[in-house]
Amino acid sequence: MENTKRLSSTARKEQIIQASLTVFIEKGYSATTTAELAKAAGVSEVTLFRHFSSKQEIFQAGIEPILFESLTNDMPMIEGKISLDELTNLLYKRITFIAQHRGIIKLILNEHLLNQTEVNIIQKMAITFGKLLSTYQLDYDDNFIIRLFMGSFLSFLYLPVEDDISIKTYATELANMILGRN
Fold first, then answer.
1. How far apart are CA 6 and CA 21, in angstroms?
2. Which of 3, 51, 72, 134 is deepest in the core (most CB within 10 A)?
3. What predicted TM-score, i.e. pTM, was given to this entire model?
4. How do residues 49-62 score in pLDDT, each as one tens digit?
């Protein structure tokens, strides 16, 4: 069972995370066992638990970088009001991100109530997104704009559009609406 190739601790953790994401997407978090995760990664459960303390830790290690690093990287640092082109580009990047990571996003939505003792992943995303958006000096209440953006992004999850031109057109129209340039 154990992969005989010697990997660094970092490489082994990444191997476990990537294999686990595939299993989580296929079966869902709740229906997945650590034995299945270990098998998919080609390691023993003992090796899996040398690197992670729990199934939830593996889950979070897999999804958080995808969600939060991409969000931070996609959102430009702007001093003053955001321009139409900057806002359109931001919206376009987030919508295409949803399209490229549909399986993981659906998994997160299906499993978002995993840990009710802490802020869940959806709330963490909204908080992070809100902090970044607050610097753009939009003429709307932050909660309204967060809901508007997240609803728009998720609409592309459930009503997928792969056509780049349609996504750009939607992003431009939404940016025009938000900036009051109908």
1. 22
2. 51
3. 0.77
4. 999 999 989 998 99
